[in-house]
Structure formats: C-alpha cells, structure tokens
Fold this sequence. Notes:
CATH topology: TIM Barrel
Order of helices and strands: EEEHEHEHEHEHEHEHHEHH
Radius of gyration: 18 Å
Number of domains: 1
Distance between the termini: 31 Å
CATH architecture: Alpha-Beta Barrel
Structural class: alpha/beta
CATH class: Alpha Beta
Helix content: 25-40%
Shape: globular
Largest sheet: 8 strands, parallel
Amino acid sequence: xxxxxxxxxxxxxxxxxxxxxxxxxxxxxxxxxxxxxxxxxxxxxxxxxxxxxxxxxxxxxxxxxxxxxxxxxxxxxxxxxxxxxxxxxxxxxxxxxxxxxxxxxxxxxxxxxxxxxxxxxxxxxxxxxxxxxxxxxxxxxxxxxxxxxxxxxxxxxxxxxxxxxxxxxxxxxxxxxxxxxxxxxxxxxxxxxxxxxxxxxxxxxxxxxxxxxxxxxxxxxxxxxxxxxxxxxxxxxxxxxxxxxxxxxxxxxxxxxxxxxxxxxxxxxxxxxxxxxxxxxxxxxxxxxxxxx
Length: 293
C-alpha cells in the first residue's frame, strides 16, 4: 500500500560530527511486535516521522524496512538507525551483522550504526569501534556512534582511535539525567540521544508536580512536557507508541517552549549516584544474549 508523503513538519535536524544531520525527534520500535512493526512505522511516516530507531535484537528490522519500501517517501528523506549486538563485536562480525541488518531492512546503507552496549567483560568494544570506522569508510553507514557507553568507555575509544562517536544513546529522563555524560559529550562534539525518555513507566514521572503544572500552563499533556524538556536541551529522542493518536501527540511539541523556571524545576528531579536508573548499568551489563534496550 502506498501512502502519500506527509511533510515532516517542524521537526528540527541536528548536525552530527560526521557532517550528516539527524531529525531530533524520531520513532523507536523497541518492544513493538515484529508482525505489527510495518503497520506502526507506516502510521508514523503518515504522521510525519522521518527518523526510525531499531536493532537486530528487537527482531523487527524487517518491518521497518517494509514500511519504508512501501512508502512514497524518498530514501534520502528518511533516517534509519540500527545497532551492533553484544555477541557480534569480535572478529569481522560487525560487518556481518551490518550486512544482515541491511538485508533485513532492504537498504543499501543505514544512516547511523551504534555499538549497542560496551559489555566491558568482553572488552571488545574498541575492536568493534574500529570495525565501525571501516564500515563508515566503505559507505555502508553514514554516521557511527555508540549506545550505553560511559565516560571511561568513551575516553578509551577516542584515545585508541582518535575518532569521536557522532552520538551516544543512553538512558536519560528527569530522574536520571546523566550530567557527567552530557558534559563529556558537549566537550567532544558528540550528540546525546535519550532512550526511555519518559522513564518507561517505572516511576510516576507524569504525575509529578513540575510536569503536571507545566502541562496545565501550556495546555499540553505531561508526556509532551517531558519530550519538550529533552528537545530544549538538544537531546535526540525516539519515543515509541503503538497508537497513532499518541504518535501525533509525541511529535506535537514544537509550538511552545518551557520557561527557564519550568526547565529548572524538572532539572531538580535528578537523582544522583544513579539512583534514578530504571535500566541496566553499562558498567555491569555483560550479557550477550539477554535483550536490554
């Protein structure tokens, strides 16, 4: 089924250190059933999303590719991110993994390829990074980056390769703001992408007074307030939804601006020492098989 292209609207793009640009707000497919992914991505395209975040371990790259292929939207107007899973970091497996992803996606290249987790017990992420550099030079991927990498992992990558990741995708939401990583990224021209930007429902974020009061003030939903908080800080994010109405809501955050006081009240929700983390700790997550975002 062909869908008429929808203008992407006011979603801004952010320039990466690779020279390419990424739409700041995209659509994530983590935990979307593989049999439903094509329909959901098609709806997201209709709504105006042009940036899609997937991974082999999500088992739904094929659905993402099917939706893109059956749309009337030119490939160069769509930004696709996929990732290298933990057990694929050694030898020439990064290349093999990317080629499998390209086959699943039915694409000739991906826009962004990320090392999914550093898996420090394996200590292969430096090797994997060097392979990603080769894949970028071969034109199979436009930009390369990492996911869930801490400052010590990032410092090793740069010291070894002399190449800065274009982006680091990490768990980031008001209770877990990753300020050390933010500061590192700002000083190394690496962009920050937030996963779990709404806290994955693991704490009552959308019921907290700073969020509720800002929502009332702007006539927006609490979720829109949190998404706007990410946007105003320059973070890249790909919230997921299986409902078209929620997809529309999530992308409708560019016609208002949180005040400095509202931003500060949300900043104050940060819990130090990782106490706000709801996902895995990258320093400790060493499982090659158990999916984690």
